Amino acid sequence: MNSPYDILHHSLSQKSALVAIIGLGYVGMPLATYFHRSGFRVLGVDLDEEKLAALRSGRSYLNHLPADWIPAALEAETLFLTSDYSALRDADAILICVPTPLGKHREPDLSHIIHATSQIACFFKRGTLVSLESTTYPGTTTEVVLPLLSKGGRVAGKDFFLVFSPEREDPGNKSHALSSIPKVIGGVTPQCAALAQLLYGAIFTETVPVSQPAAAELCKLLENIFRSVNIALVNELKMLCGRMGLDIWEIIDAAATKPFGFMPFYPGPGLGGHCIPIDPFYLTWKAREYGFATRFIELSGEINTSMPQYVLSRCMQALNMTGRPLRGSRVLVLGAAYKKDINDLRESPSIPLMNLLEENGAIVQYNDPFIPHIAAMGANSPERNSIELTSAALKDSDLVLIATAHSCYDPAFIVEHAPLVVDTRNMTGKLLENRHKIVQA
What's CA 175's distance to the chain center, in Å? Predict the structure, then answer.
């Protein structure tokens, strides 16, 4: 009689397996697309019924993730979309792609992982492969997920298979297709890792096995902490260059001509997205369990989270040079998304920037062609609607703040019609005319 390992190995090899993906967001949807495209049947599970309705009609809630292939796949019964976890009983492989936010005291919030895993434990069949993709601290897979799946005497590597394989998504990045990004895999047992390599090898050109799930978990944190620390460095240098009368972007570009030993990172108004503003704190929290203070990581977090306050001070200085106070001034913020050319608001520094400006008396409007509406986020963050970016809107503003450098923005047009521009992204860096209107921040 074939073992659960042999049965799953055969179904993965033949692509007859049903691959379930829990969480149809910026991680889950690309995976669903690639697995379906490679010939697997796909089950998508998400608790948001509005999102499921949109996907069924061929609409994606993220503009960089097309969903127009979904209706035909549903009709052909090669794709299934549901909010009912009981559908997992038919799955051969289950990928967990749920959010891992921070709590109000910057502690890891694993509630989404725990809920998804508890539901899997209720329904999954013997021989199922479970892969956690959500970014988390080292130890989550074996300390949190494994015990939940092991209830009833089930044994990992025998009755089910468990790995951690971190997502490496970069929303809006067109230079690297998902399939070309090597896939790191940490299995609870060698059998777990081998099956995950077989699964992911169907859509990724390279898989990178590591010794254990904790190594893969820390690998993902290292990648994002590396970025956070280096962004904090250039943000700090940006503030110093402001006092010294130097252009940080010119300096970075000059340093980047060195063909070895340097990698350019660029400053901004603060960090955004789900990963870089959040992931470092997962490791600093876990490190305390070992009596270790991650001072370097925490310092980078402090610098990056302070950037909206720095931008606010630069706006005040810029207005002061024209003889106006911030209080009562009309400020037009360009860009609400956390990075250019996407409609993702998660952790966007534009939100605290607008709130800070209003708290200090400014009259704030915003434009973002990708985000026409911003829902209220508490008493200090009201509901907002994007206004049309016209010459009149620019002229009617006392200050235009460039927070996100969308490709559709014309910097020459903006600077021509705006009386004053504070640029946090160096979008106006190559302009020669009207430089007297531009203040870097």
Answer: 17
281's CB contacts (< 8 A; 6+ apart) are 102, 106, 108, 301
Our measurement of the distance from residue 127's CA atom to the centroid of its chain's CA atoms, rounded to an integer in Å, reads 32
The residue ranges of DSSP E strands in 286-404, in sequence order, are: 330-334, 363-367, 373-374, 384-385, 399-402
> Where does residue 36 fall: left (phi above 0), alpha (psi -120 to 50 degrees), or beta otherwise?
alpha
For 278-320, the pLDDT digits (tens) are: 888 899 999 999 999 999 999 998 999 999 999 999 999 999 9
Instruction: Please give the pLDDT value at position 264.
Output: 97
HEC secondary structure over 385-410: ECCCCCHHHHHCCCEEEECCCCCCCC
Output the pTM of the full model.
0.92
Q: Give backbone dihedrals phi and psi of 220, rounded to 5 degrees, phi first.
A: -65, -40
Domain at 4-211, CATH homologous superfamily: NAD(P)-binding Rossmann-like Domain (3.40.50.720)
Average pLDDT over residues 183-211: 98
In angstroms, the CA 116 to CA 160 distance is: 16
CATH superfamily of 247-440: NAD(P)-binding Rossmann-like Domain (3.40.50.720)
Burial classification of residue 69, based on how many CB atoms lie within 10 Å of its CB (0-12 exposed, 13-18 middle, 19 or more buried): middle
Please identify every residue annotated as catalytic. Answer: 275
- Average pLDDT, integer, range 320-338: 97
Q: Which amino acid is at 196?
A: A
Give first-to-last CA distance, the chain, whole Å: 68
Q: How far apart are CA 37 and CA 438, in angstroms?
A: 48
Alpha-carbon distances, residue 322 vs 237, 315, 425 (angstroms): 26, 11, 22
Do residues 421 and 437 lie in contact, with contact meaning Cβ atoms separated by under 8 Å? yes
Q: Is the pLDDT of residue 121 over 60?
A: yes
Question: In this structure, are residues 374 and 300 in contact, taking their beta carbons and an 8 Å threshold?
Answer: no
The rounded distance, in Å, linking the Cα atoms of 182 and 165 is: 11
